[in-house]
Amino acid sequence: MKACTPATEFLRIKTLAEQGVPQAQHSLGFMYFNGDGVPQSHELAMAWYRQAANAGLAHAQYNLGVMYQKGQGVEADFAEAARWYRLAAEQGYAAAQYNLGWLYAKGHGLPQDTEQARHWFGEAAEQGDPGAQNNLGMMYETGKGVPQDAALAVHWYRKAAVQGYARAQFNLALRFDKGDGVEQDSAQAIDWLRQAAAQGHAPAQFNLALRHDKGDGVPQDSVQAIRWYRAAAEQGHVSSQFNLGLIYDNGHGVPRDEREALEWYLRAAAQGHAAAQNNVGQRHEHGQGVPRDPAAAAEWYRKAALQGFPSAQYNLGLLYDSGNGVARDERIAIDWYRQAAEQGHLRARFELALRYETGRGVAQDLRAALAWYQRAAEQDYAPAQYNLGLLHDRDDGPAPSVELANGWYRKAAEQGHALAQFTLALRHDNGQGVPRDFTQAFAWYRKAAQQGHARAQLNVGLMYFAGQGTAPDMAQASHWFMLAERNGEAAAGRYLREANARQGGALVPLAGAPVA
């Protein structure tokens, strides 16, 4: 017996279809839709699906709904799609029940109705449709259209996950990770992540990459991190693209590669990732991996700044402040500084405080300066802490207070701010707002002196010379006088000669002495 050829099979099905057999009409529509043995034609596919659908064939009704939803062979029409899905759904066709639920959830083609969405997802889920099971899980997780119930969410996610549905595997992993609706179990979380990632689910791949990147629940492994970031990035997952850029930028687990970093930043930036846009701007501003182009930098900063990214707002402000790549405009610069500062950007807050203190580009306002210095100081920014101390020290300032000034000087000094260390030393030296304490004064002078502060070097020398706050030591005194003189303190020369004389005129080199 000879096997049917595709042409013979087509003629057989076409004959049956023309005789009004619904199954044959659906099969003929399917052949035209896929170009199976005939030239592909969505229009003819729709015509034959419609005849089968009008005869009540559920899967033809479903396929007709899909074509209306996607605009295949006809103008897209969600309402008409919903009509055909409903006819199939009411016959128990699970895929149509799922799609009808989705249209209700989104409000496409019919009024948004979470109760109807839950109903149709539930009907499909009970028949084992994994997409509907996953969506039902999401509804129970968020309490959208149903009472929130984490355990029921896990129940439905698991049903879909064991069928290999990647989205449900990812959602189940997150529940195990947080212990939400199920006992917390990192090993189970990672296992479900791996299953979803292996199927190409980009969010799972990103999550798995993050874990390998940080050593979170798995051994730190940059090779595995890059593998999974890349798998997700190649699918357009924007955070993976950005993180790959960071990895190549910092040489974390791979040789540092500015060109590769820029490529991934650009791909993320093109999708609107604000941090990537800011990084692309920095590369154009500084000529890092690309020719230096401040105008291009300004455009990239602007894209990120308009999304509210504070670092880009600050960087754009700097360009307007200097007229670099854009026309110089102090007013626009200050506006960008303010937007960044209001979002907590440290340097923008400090810059805005400086403007108000000095009246540069804005009306001088010491109270506003104090407020912005305070915000930056509370973020442990030592220059702001020092300047806040200076402002509290001013008798004409908005809040004169020696005690507050000294408190901020100490905070800055403890972070290594040389001017604050010198100022705090002076306070202990003179007993200004603190008990007079030469030992404390000497300790703070020395810290500032070791950072090259010339006046502090002179004062350290004087305290060694006089034995004040420390034991007398002419060799040490000479050393510090010499550094102070070298750094411009003219008075240090006279003391240096006297200290040398007191030790017999020979300046003995000090092993391990601080470098100016």
Automatic annotation (TrEMBL):
Native source species? [Empedobacter] haloabium
UniProt-listed Pfam families = Sel1 (PF08238)
Q: Which PANTHER family does its entry note?
A: ACTIVATOR OF C KINASE PROTEIN 1-RELATED (PTHR43628), CHITIN SYNTHASE REGULATORY FACTOR 2-RELATED (PTHR43628:SF1)
Q: Which InterPro entries match?
A: Mitotic_Regulator, Sel1-like, TPR-like_helical_dom_sf
Q: What is this protein called?
A: Tetratricopeptide repeat protein
Q: Which domain of life is it from?
A: Bacteria
